[in-house]
Automatic annotation (TrEMBL):
One of its GO terms (molecular function) is branched-chain amino acid transmembrane transporter activity. Gene3D superfamilies: P-loop containing nucleotide triphosphate hydrolases. Keywords: Amino-acid transport, ATP-binding, Nucleotide-binding, Plasmid, Transport. It comes from Shinella sumterensis. It comes from the Bacteria. Belongs to the ABC transporter superfamily. It holds the Pfam family ABC_tran. The keyword ATP-binding applies. The keyword Acetylation does not apply. GO terms for biological process: L-amino acid transport. This is ABC transporter ATP-binding protein. InterPro entries: AAA+_ATPase (IPR003593), ABC_transporter-like_ATP-bd (IPR003439), ABC_transporter-like_CS (IPR017871), BCAA_Transport_ATP-bd_LivF (IPR052156), P-loop_NTPase (IPR027417).
Length: 246
């Protein structure tokens, strides 16, 4: 008998207004697992995360978190349940200091105090402690990405969703971000990672899904995904329409 997944998505269709993006997506994330979502631009990866976090409204299917139906829940409800979204493009508060960004993200859920959470973020990202009183707008791209992740951690997530955390960063910083993702996983946090760096994502992930044209085209253990020829075909074109489970 297997335990219930932390996150279970079944037959999810979603989009924006009359524009459909996702169609019939099935996905699961287990506790303490890193699940990677891959796919070319426009595949529906960001829409999937937005649908889970309540930004986009599903038109069909269900989303269950810890066995609870959260389909169509508002973003503030989703966050309070322990599911936090770190969006593409960082979207930090540029006109606030590092400290003020962390204060704004603390939702006061029953658990750790603000001071404890801030200390954990500063331990994970020492540069944020050094620049705690500095304006977020004056930080480098890598530092802003660290702040975006640190801000998400202030909500004490059980599941952290990261959308393209390596986008636009220097290779050295990218590897640092991925080491932090692995460190977070070791603490027991589950992670749903959207990422264009296929090699690094599959190296750190436990399980992977490939989206294309709003559908899951390939899924399986990360190592087996990395070796499957269909992975490259979906990025380069010419792939079949059938879903492949490796």
């Amino acid at each position: 008998m297997t335990s219930e997944p932390l996150l279970r998505i079944a037959g999810l269709s979603s989009g924006y207004g009359r524009v459909g993006v996702l169609e019939g997506v099935d996905l699961e994330v287990d506790a303490r697992e890193i699940v990677v979502i891959l796919g070319p631009n426009g595949a529906g990866k960001t829409t999937l995360l937005n649908s889970i976090s309540g930004v986009a409204r599903p038109t069909a299917g269900t989303i269950h978190f810890e066995g609870r139906d959260i389909t169509g829940a508002r973003p503030e409800q989703v966050v309070r349940l322990g599911l936090t979204h770190c969006p593409e493009g960082r979207q930090i508060f540029q006109r606030l200091t590092v400290e003020e960004n962390l204060v704004a993200a603390h939702i006061g859920r029953a658990g750790k105090s603000f001071e404890t959470l801030r200390s954990e973020v500063f331990e994970l990202f020492p540069v944020l402690k050094e620049r705690r009183n500095g304006m977020a707008s004056r930080m480098s791209g890598g530092q802003q990405q660290m702040l975006a992740i640190g801000r998400a951690l202030m909500a004490e997530p059980k599941l952290l969703m990261l959308d393209e955390p390596s986008l636009g960063l220097a290779p050295k910083i990218v590897h640092q971000i991925f080491r932090i993702i692995l460190d977070l996983s070791k603490t027991g946090m589950s992670i749903l990672l959207v990422e264009q760096n296929v090699q690094l994502a599959l190296e750190c992930g436990d399980y992977g899904y490939l989206l294309n044209t709003g559908r899951v085209k390939l899924h399986g253990p990360a190592q087996e995904m990395a070796e499957h020829s269909a992975l490259g075909e979906h990025y380069l074109g010419g792939a079949t329409e059938d879903t492949i489970h490796v």
